[in-house]
Amino acid sequence: MPPLPDPIKRLHDGLADPFGCAPLAIQVRDKSSVVIVVSDYTRNVRYPLWLPELLNKLNEAGIPDASVQLYVASGTHRSMTPEEKQETYGADVCKRVEILDHDCDNLDRMKKIGRTSYGTIGYIDERVFNAEMMILTGGIQFHYFAGYSGGRKAILPGCCARETILKNHSLVIDKKTGRFADKVRPGIALGNPVNEDMLQIASQLRPDMCINVVLNSKKEICWLGVGDQGYKLRRGAQFLDKYNMIEIKEPVDIAVIGSGGHPKDLTLFQAHKALKHAEEMLKPGCKVIWLAKCEQGEGTEEFQSFRSLNVDECTARAQKDISLYSFCSLSIKLLTAKFDIHLVSDLPPEHVRAWGFTPHADVESAFAAAVPPDHTGLNWAVVPDCSNMLPVLPGHAGLEG
Q: Which single residue of 5, 130, 292, 366 has CA 20 to 30 Å from 34?
């Protein structure tokens, strides 16, 4: 994806002429404060590049920094450290405006906004619920069960109570099979119950504006859109599909998969998304060389508790223990049961083996073990950043479902 020559100009143009909503200057005429919903440390949205300019435009429209708050849409993630906030949003932004932390378990702050057709009751932090004006922000990437990140995900799971998040995430599993529901896959929106449930909650809250970006593997902004959260997600996903949904003729015998580097491979939990994106292009028994540094380990203690379970045990637990950790664990167990995956990481070898991978300290070791001496005629795929790429076979449903 080629980078935008001038992301700030694109932001200015979008704020002056957004898609599906009124311009920023008109929307703030009768407002005295603004809440900007932002992603946390697990997402690179290039905030230091463009968030100060959004604040400048709010200032020009009559909203001073003292009347602007950033709300960190962290869902069930831990709170950010001051250092992480400065790195994620920029030191200038951290000095200019107040930053509010989300706590999905602080029920005293949660307000009920309604119920979806899937039975999910929306409980959202009152500081977002009561916002005079709400601007959603975030990045659009392929998401292994919501189809795409961006747009409505800033609200659900970002700003919601744990009960709401878990009910939405329970739609990942088909109750009849105990496995992932048919359309719960990366790159599928229409008919994906997780995505549609998120959209219903976000629509009930009615955000005033959404700013989403798409980055390439060099972390450059390639697309920036401003407007209604539903429209912007769709248009950004279409752009992502155009460049990064790659159709291949047939499954491959050997694959080399990168996870996108920091912060996408901070933990096994985070890096897993790249492996999941590659699934459709892999033959059963495919030799996979997967690079994921995992410098901060596997993930939370809850996630680690799934490490030694087999597929059936993981399936049973995921059906009653609904969480991102159970779903990610089940996904990993299904992948390691189907493919021969050699993981190059900083993780302890015994932990890697318990997950079902073959551990390696370097790429040379992984190649020596995974690639047969005579690989003539075998199909290969090399994807340096599979967190940002979705290889698919002919007939993939795509954005239209």
A: 5
The residue ranges of every structural domain in the chain are 7-243, 248-393
CATH fit for domain 248-393, picks 3.40.50.300, 3.40.50.800, 3.40.50.720, 3.90.226.30: 3.90.226.30
Pairing mode of beta strands 380-383, 68-72 = unpaired
Distances in Å between the alpha carbon of 218 and those of 221, 238, 246?
9, 20, 18
CATH fold group of domain 7-243: Rossmann fold (3.40.50)
pLDDT at 223: 98
Say how far apart CA 226 and CA 18 lie, in whole Å.
Answer: 5
- By the 8 A CB rule, do 146 and 165 touch? no
| Residue 385 per-residue DSSP state | B
- Token readout for 361 is 């300290």
Which of 52, 279, 346, 294 is CA-nearest to residue 144?
A: 279
The pLDDT value recorded for residue 399 is 54
Q: Is the per-residue pLDDT at 324 higher than 90?
A: no
